[in-house]
Write a structure and sequence with these properties.
The complex is a heterodimer. Chain A is mostly helical. Chain A is built from 5 helices and 1 strand, in the order αααβαα. In chain B, 29% of the residues lie in helices and 35% in strands. Chain B has helices at residues 8-26, 30-46, 208-214, 247-264, 287-298, 334-345, 367-389, 404-416; strands at 2-5, 53-59, 63-65, 69-78, 82-88, 95-97, 102-107, 112-121, 125-129, 132-137, 143-149, 153-158, 177-196, 218-226, 229-236, 241-242, 245-246, 268-275, 279-284, 324-329, 349-355, 394-397. Chain B starts with a strand and ends with a helix. Classes of the chains: A mainly alpha, B alpha+beta. Chains A and B meet through helix 2, helix 3, strand 1, helix 4 and helix 5 of A and helix 1, helix 2, strand 5 and strand 7 of B.
Chain lengths: 135, 420
């Protein structure tokens, strides 16, 4: 609970101060959830997919609200397009997260392969962020 | 264009990496599930590519008057789809655009888009609009590309002019034909005198009534119509500015009005911008001179300077003999006062129109500030007295009062007290 409360506070700070602290807020929220799940036992928590999408929506809607503060008069269709894109990203994220949860039901006879794949995914995630930043 | 990433991309990458590492370390699938949507967002960001958009800015016209509206047209053409294209027209404070200077549009590949903006010209001046500041973003705003595009376009906003029914008549005229009734006598319209006939006089000038009375030929004499030389002397050493209004703005409008009025009656008009930045135009007539004067006025601005200047720095042809010098000044700088008194001492026909700054100065009931303001007003009164002592009419032009009012005061002064 303290983690969640702190995460919420950081989210409010991010909204007030132009996005600063949003990453920390999402980290805190996700970390608090993972800690709660780990402490609850070995049972897989199916609400992880919903939690994942909510975290993503938190980030995207915060960014959208901050973008709307610019005094730029947009075409009417742009707001609808962004809304549709955020929704599509959320739905796709939900599907991917559900797929990951479903994969966990697969027997772990290929544990080493999965571990290597997971490590590669972690490196890929970090690397893609750097690549996009430099492009 | 320079590419940028959103501030949230590093956070998403960190979250995704942390989620996968935590899943591996803890042996749980939930952290990996948390990381999955953020990985998807990174993939979406990587799909964006730099746009190629051509931008063209044009103005409906390059000259306008204060208060006019000018249409600015922005034409966009993109080689690829752009989810969100934003542009900003950098504007000086004197111009404004209805709805703000920034717009965001969607561009389709190879489809030209035209956006029209209405520019409102609030104040005179010479401006350069453009280039535009542009930014292209993907639909989620994860990546953007910024730059500038288009060429600068010049816009001249001329000062608004008042309608004057009468102008101050110079005391002396020049040798060329004009609309001013001269004291010299010859062929004209205004009756001047009668005299005896001399060989060479035209028959139609004979005054038959006088001839019948005196039994000799007597002829009418008329006043000649001649032009005059007028020099507008603009004090640009200092101004008082408050709430978007300034004494320099009113002075420029007055100068434009007077230049137009005198040039319309075929007088020669010159201009002296006397201040930190010295500018001058020798007297000339015609529409070209009017445009030259107004274009020079557009660039007149207050430039801080500590240089000691006198009228001897001006070229001799700028101030022709017997010219009427109309000084438009807020009476703030002593160098202008010294220069004008010098002109009077040289025998110029000088009139001072004081652009009153008092309405722009907030009166303060506080004893120290109020006392200082009283002293300042007294010093201005003393300066006016110095001018009047040497025969220079000084009229105060208050804000909100038509320019015709102080000019009529000058005419009344000159009618009652003929300068030496």
């Amino acid at each position: 609970m303290p983690g969640a409360a702190l995460g919420t506070l950081l989210l409010v700070v991010a909204l007030v101060f132009g996005g600063h602290g949003l990453g920390a807020a999402l980290f805190l929220a996700g970390g608090t959830y993972v800690a709660a799940v780990v402490s609850a036992g070995n049972r897989i928590d199916a609400s992880a997919t919903l939690m994942a999408v909510l975290l993503l929506l938190c980030g995207e809607l915060t960014a959208w609200s901050l973008d709307e503060r610019w005094r730029i008069r947009p075409e009417e269709s742009l707001a609808w397009r962004r809304g549709a894109a955020v929704s599509a990203l959320a739905l796709a994220g939900l599907a991917v997260a559900a797929f990951v949860i479903a994969l966990s039901a697969v027997p772990s006879s290929h544990g080493l392969l999965l571990t290597v794949a997971g490590a590669a995914a972690a490196v890929g995630a970090a690397g893609s962020g750097i690549w996009v930043a430099r492009r | 264009m320079t590419g940028f990433t959103s501030w949230r991309l590093p956070a998403y990458a960190s979250l995704a990496a942390a989620g996968v590492v935590a899943g591996l370390a803890l042996g749980r699938v939930e952290p990996v599930a948390l990381a999955a949507p953020f990985l998807l967002a990174l993939v979406a960001a990587a799909a964006g590519h730099e746009p190629q958009v051509s931008v063209r800015l044009s103005l409906g016209r390059d000259r306008a008057l204060e208060g006019d509206e000018v249409t600015a047209t922005i034409e966009l053409l993109s080689a690829r789809d752009v989810d969100r294209f934003e542009f900003l027209v950098p504007l000086p404070p004197e111009l404004s655009i209805e709805g703000g200077p920034a717009r965001a549009v969607r561009l389709h590949a190879d489809e030209e888009k035209t956006i029209e903006l209405t520019l409102h010209c609030r104040r005179w001046g010479a401006f350069a609009l453009g280039p535009l500041l542009v930014r292209a973003r993907d639909v989620l705003g994860l990546r953007s590309w910024e730059g500038s595009a288009g060429e600068a376009r010049r816009l001249r906003v001329y000062p608004s002019e008042e309608t004057l029914r009468s102008l101050v008549a110079p005391l002396e005229t020049q040798v060329f034909a004009g609309n001013q009734v001269s004291r010299a006598r010859g062929e004209g319209i205004e009756f001047a005198d009668l005299r005896e006939w001399r060989p060479g006089d035209r028959l139609r000038r004979v005054n038959w009534r006088a001839t019948a009375l005196r039994r000799e030929l007597w002829v009418n004499e008329q006043h000649l119509e001649r032009n005059t030389d007028v020099v507008l002397f603009l004090d640009t050493f200092a101004e008082v500015r408050a709430e978007g209004r300034s004494t320099n703005d009113r002075a420029v409008r007055a100068a434009a009005t007077l230049a137009h009025g005198y040039l319309e009656r075929r007088d020669r008009v010159g201009l002296v911008g006397f201040g930190g930045f010295l500018s001058w135009l020798v007297p000339a007539s015609g529409t070209r001179r009017l445009y030259a004067i107004v274009d020079t006025l557009l660039t007149s601005s207050i430039v801080l300077s500590y240089a000691l200047r006198g009228v001897d720095v001006l070229p001799p042809r700028t101030l022709p003999p017997q010219a009427l010098v109309l000084a438009i000044t807020p009476l703030l700088d002593g160098r202008t006062a010294a220069a004008l008194l010098d002109l009077r001492a040289r025998g110029y026909d000088l009139i001072v129109v004081e652009v009153s700054p008092l309405e722009l100065v907030m009166t303060d009931a506080n004893s120290a500030t109020g006392l200082a303001q009283r002293l300042w007003r007294l010093s201005r009164e003393a300066l006016r007295w110095r001018y009047e002592q040497v025969g220079v009419p000084v009229v105060t032009w208050d804000e909100g009062v038509p320019l015709a009012v102080p000019l009529e005061e000058v005419n009344a002064f000159r009618h009652l007290a003929r300068p030496a």
